[in-house]
Amino acid sequence: QVQLVESGGGLVQAGGSLRLSCAASGRTFSSYVMGWFRQAPGKEREFVAAIRWSGGSTYYADSVKGRFSISRDYAKNTVYLQMNRLKPEDTAVYYCAAGRIPRAVVPGPSSSHHYDHWGQGTQVTVSS
Predict the structure, then answer these.
(1) Distance between CA atoms of residues 33 and 55, nearest Å
(2) CB proximity list for 120: less than 8 A, separation 6 or greater
């Protein structure tokens, strides 16, 4: 059974940094894309970033480009989201997700419909 467990959320001041972790278990993820999504109160869930286990191609939402960085650690079967220069509008519950997404499919990893497995979420709060 696939399990995705997020950690690393918390309260931080604007301009600060946090690193989220997503520990994946239950299968081999080499053919998967791992994504981060977030959902703020009263808003729809939105794409943040994604990475392919094989090859390491990365994808980012425009709102986080240059501030957030996604990476993966094969040995630990863990995906990270390094968040720098945080803003109050980054406040949300952050979810890790896993799905098999062929490179040619449109829309690509930014669409939540491609993801089969989701974590429980971790709260990130950025104070002004």
Answers:
(1) 10
(2) 5, 6, 95
Residue whose entry in the numeric block shows the structure tokens 């109160």: 41
Model confidence pLDDT, tens digit, residues 109-119: 999 999 999 99
**Residue 83: exposure state from Cβ atoms within 10 A (0-12, 13-18, ≥19):** buried
According to DSSP, the residues that pair with 5 across neighbouring strands are: 23
How many angstroms separate the CA atoms of 20 and 84, rounded? 11
**Nearest 10 degrees: CA dihedral of 75, 78, 83, 88?**
-170
Upper half-sphere CA count for residue 18 (Cβ side, 13 Å): 21
Structure tokens at 72: 């993966």
Write the pLDDT tens digit of every residue in 52-97: 999 899 999 999 999 999 999 989 999 999 999 999 999 999 999 9
Phi then psi for residue 89, to 5 deg, are -70, -5
The residue count for the chain: 128
